[in-house]
């Protein structure tokens, strides 16, 4: 076994290696809309679910509440979402600017999809994606 593959049986190592590669690809594609991928996915989710509660957004994106707060605050400062609080509940709404960006964000997401399916093959990419998310859901529930 060479040094490059000596940790192949370690899920932690393999998942992080994959995440770094996919993150780099995603950052390249989403740079076309001047957003990091996480911000773009928040915008798509808010555009699709106007008035979404921050807790629900965190659940959908599988992020902590504090991470969602940080992402939303940054997007709000850029005029891409609006927050409205009622008591302890914060609802997040799209702005005209975020709605206008939606198609460009979806195009970047599609280009990312094409990049990895071109390398992995569409069926392998779908199976890998399904397996990874199902594993994440199982591990998160423990």
Q: How far apart are the first and last residues' alpha carbons, in Å?
A: 33 Å
The coarse overall form would be globular
CATH H level: which superfamily?
Winged helix-like DNA-binding domain superfamily/Winged helix DNA-binding domain
Strand content: 5-15%
- Report the order of strands and helices: HHEHHEEHH
SSE-based structural type: mainly alpha
Mean pLDDT: 94
Question: Helix content range of the residues, please?
Answer: 55-70%
State the CATH architecture: Orthogonal Bundle
Describe the structure.
The chain is mainly alpha-helical and 142 residues long. The chain has one domain: Arc Repressor Mutant, subunit A. It has six helices and three strands; from the N terminus they run ααβααββαα. Strands 1-3-2 form a three-stranded antiparallel sheet. It is globular. The mean pLDDT is 94.
Précis, in short:
By secondary structure, the chain is mainly alpha-helical.
Chain-wise SSE layout:
Elements: H1 11-30, H2 37-48, E1 52-53, H3 54-61, H4 65-77, E2 81-86, E3 89-94, H5 96-120, H6 122-140
Helix pairs in contact: 1-5, 2-4, 2-5, 3-4, 5-6
Keywords:
10% strand, single chain, globular, Arc Repressor Mutant, subunit A, mainly alpha, 3-stranded antiparallel beta sheet, 142 residues
């Amino acid at each position: 076994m060479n040094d490059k593959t000596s940790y192949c049986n370690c899920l932690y190592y393999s998942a992080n290696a994959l995440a770094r590669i996919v993150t780099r690809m995603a950052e390249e594609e989403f740079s076309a809309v001047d957003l990091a991928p996480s911000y773009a996915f928040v915008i798509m989710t808010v555009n699709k679910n106007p008035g979404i509660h921050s807790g629900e957004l965190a659940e959908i994106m599988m992020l902590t509440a504090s991470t969602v707060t940080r992402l939303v605050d940054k997007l709000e400062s850029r005029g891409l979402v609006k927050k409205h609080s009622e008591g302890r509940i914060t609802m997040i709404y799209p702005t005209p600017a975020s709605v206008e960006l939606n198609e460009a964000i979806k195009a970047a997401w599609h280009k990312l999809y094409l990049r990895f399916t071109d390398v992995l093959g569409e069926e392998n990419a779908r199976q890998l994606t399904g397996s990874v998310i199902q594993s994440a859901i199982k591990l998160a529930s423990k």
